[in-house]
Write a structure and sequence with these properties.
By secondary structure, the chain is of the alpha+beta class. Helices cover about 40% and strands about 20% of the residues. It folds into 3 domains: about 5-220, Jelly Rolls; about 235-280, Arc Repressor Mutant, subunit A; about 285-340. It has helices at about 15-20, 30-40, 145-155, 180-190, 200-220, 235-250, 255-265, 270-280, 285-300, 310-315, 320-335, 335-340; strands at about 5, 25-30, 45-50, 60-65, 70-75, 80-85, 90-100, 100-105, 110-115, 120, 130, 135-145, 170-175. Keywords: DNA-binding, Transcription, Transcription regulation.
Length: about 350
């Protein structure tokens, strides 16, 4: 007997998120065998089977963009299908239904992930069987286990070279999986501004990848979520000063907290404690302040008549959500970024520290 577990209501994912990946089509086919072969190229091996009587209705489509370690895409089949993925994948996946529903089987129990309510975590370890409804269109986040292992070493200070954290297959509400849900949306939205991955600036690709890896490691349960290591010690003041110089010397957004920690030979947690002790703020807050200052200078120096845009400058300095950038900018400088770009038609107040 099958037990279906309903997930609490959450807001729907905007249709615009799905449309943003339209330029990254990988395939469109009515043949499940072709879809199965194509999926191996960017996701993971698995068997596709259409439900009885549904094979003639297959309309499989996939759109996918990837940074190497992290990728985001959209997938649909146009028919009720079962995806049977064997154990031993090199990827962790997160499937977020934009329409319809996905059903995750755990023995004889089925858990439904429905559009606007929940998501499915597809762990690298262990076989997983999922059923896609005919109207299911899902946003997919894919992260390599090798990248997770590297990012986990930075976060935990571990030294094992090939020990990625272990996750479990599960369905989470969008609230429970908010970090990875937001990271997947951000990836899709930023990639959607470009016609091809090669057009995305390398610094942007790096920032997006590191953000997604951190979201997975900090936002999902795994065997490293509760470390047994001794309490962290704060990074010494000279390490904090070195981190500050690295951020201040950037010519565009380059480092995040994990990357700074790795370059300086400390854990991300130690660096965070060091900043708290020395500056009474987190490294992330310091990075945000410096980059907001850099963006402010560029906006004032830019010539709007030559085609320079607020989005271009904001993206270069790691602010991928232009609306949030404008809000943060106005809170500090008293005007919107567009006013500064046009030469300042409103009075700017002295900047305040954020």
């Amino acid at each position: 007997m099958t037990a279906s577990i309903e997930i609490a209501h959450q807001p729907r994912v905007e249709d615009a998120v799905g449309r943003s990946l339209a330029a990254y089509k990988r395939y469109e086919t009515h043949d499940l065998d072709i879809a199965e072969v194509e999926i191996r190229r960017f996701m993971a091996p698995g068997r596709l089977r259409a439900c009885p009587g549904d094979r003639d209705g297959v309309d499989a489509r996939a759109f996918y963009a990837d940074t190497g370690s992290v990728g985001v895409g959209r997938m649909s089949y146009g028919a009720e299908v079962t995806v049977d993925r064997p154990a031993g994948s090199r990827y962790l996946g997160v499937a977020i239904p934009l329409s319809g529903h996905l059903r995750l089987w755990r023995g004889r129990e089925a858990v439904d992930a429905r559009a606007g309510k929940s998501l499915v975590v597809i762990a690298p370890q262990g076989r997983i069987v999922t059923e896609w409804s005919a109207d299911c269109d899902a946003l997919m986040l894919r992260v390599t286990t090798s990248a997770l292992a590297r990012a986990a070493r930075v976060l935990t200070g571990a030294h094992e070279p090939d020990s990625p954290p272990r996750f479990v297959h599960q369905v989470l509400t969008l609230e429970q999986g908010h970090a990875v849900y937001s990271a997947a949306r951000l990836l899709a939205e930023v990639f959607g501004r470009y016609d091809d991955v090669t057009a995305v600036p390398n610094g942007v690709l790096h920032q997006l990848s590191e953000h997604a890896l951190s979201a997975v490691l900090l936002g999902l349960e795994h065997d490293l979520s509760r470390p047994t290591r001794p309490p962290y010690r704060a990074a010494p003041s000279d390490v904090v000063r070195s981190a500050m110089r690295m951020v201040e010397d950037e010519t565009a957004a380059e480092f995040n907290v994990n990357e700074l920690a790795r370059r300086l030979g400390v854990t991300a947690r130690a660096l965070q404690l060091g900043f708290r002790r020395a500056l009474d703020r987190t490294p992330r807050e310091y990075i945000r302040q410096i980059r907001l200052e850099r963006a402010h200078r560029e906006l004032l120096a830019a010539d709007a008549t030559d085609g320079t845009t607020v989005t271009e400058i904001a993206t270069r300095w790691g602010f991928f959500h232009t609306g949030r950038f404008a809000t943060a900018y106005r809170a500090v400088y008293g005007v919107t970024p567009s006013v500064s770009l046009k030469g300042g038609t409103e009075e700017e107040r002295p900047p305040r520290v954020v």
